[in-house]
């Protein structure tokens, strides 16, 4: 088992972060490697909904399922991801705070994420040999989301 916790500050108020985080049309901008996703059951983005995802990892396409287990936004969002040999339980907590930038107080969002990876079969060896591969994955998604959120005009075209 591998457990990791990461924190990141996004220079936007919580309500703006939530609008971007929840919008599935924007996943392609910050979930690197996401090739496709399709809902399997439930209302997409809501508790107890599931979707199938196809993700490109190291040149291969893997199939993964996502089950959203808790939605209490804007403060908590949890999901479980499953693929062959790996189960990842993801807990994301958000809170608004204030930061001083250029002598101005701005509202920002603190995002804390905890990932717990459990392995079976051959993936146990991979998990033991390369734990950073899994620990770094969550932080990379967080950093990619921060870049997208703070620079969304570079990603989204209105026309």
Describe the structure.
The protein is α+β, with helices and mostly antiparallel strands and 159 residues long. It has a single domain, classed as Alpha-D-Glucose-1,6-Bisphosphate, Chain A, domain 4 (2-Layer Sandwich), CATH 3.30.530. Helices cover 25% and strands 49% of the residues. The chain contains four helices and seven strands; from the N terminus they run βααββββββαα. A seven-stranded antiparallel beta sheet has the order 1-7-6-5-4-3-2.
Provide the helix percentage. Answer: 25-40%
Spatial extent as radius of gyration: 16 Å
Low-confidence stretches: none
CATH architectural grouping: 2-Layer Sandwich
Main sheet: strands, sense, barrel? 7 strands, antiparallel
Strand order of the largest sheet: 1-7-6-5-4-3-2
Structural class: alpha+beta
Q: What is the H/E string?
A: EHHEEEEEEHH
DSSP E strands, number: 7
Content of β-strand: over 45%
CATH topology, which one? Alpha-D-Glucose-1,6-Bisphosphate, Chain A, domain 4
CATH class category name: Alpha Beta
- Our count of domains comes out at 1
Chain-wise SSE layout:
Blueprint: E1 2-10, H1 14-22, H2 27-30, E2 34-41, E3 50-57, E4 60-72, E5 76-83, E6 86-101, E7 104-119, H3 123-129, H4 131-150
Antiparallel strand pairs: 1-7, 2-3, 3-4, 4-5, 5-6, 6-7
């Amino acid at each position: 088992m591998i457990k990791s916790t990461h924190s990141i500050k996004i220079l936007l108020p919580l309500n703006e972060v939530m609008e971007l985080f929840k919008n599935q049309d924007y996943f392609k901008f910050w979930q690197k490697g996401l090739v496709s996703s399709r809902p399997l059951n439930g209302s997409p983005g809501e508790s107890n909904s599931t979707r199938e995802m196809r993700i490109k990892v190291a040149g291969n396409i893997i199939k993964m399922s996502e089950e959203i287990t808790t939605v209490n936004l804007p403060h908590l969002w949890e999901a479980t991801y499953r693929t062959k040999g790996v189960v990842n339980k993801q807990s994301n907590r958000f809170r608004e705070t204030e930061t001083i930038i250029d002598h101005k107080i701005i509202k920002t969002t603190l995002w804390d994420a905890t990932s717990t990876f459990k392995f079976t079969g051959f993936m146990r060896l991979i998990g033991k040999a390369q734990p950073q591969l899994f620990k770094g994955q969550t932080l990379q998604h967080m950093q990619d989301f921060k870049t997208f959120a703070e620079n969304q005009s570079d990603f989204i075209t209105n026309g």
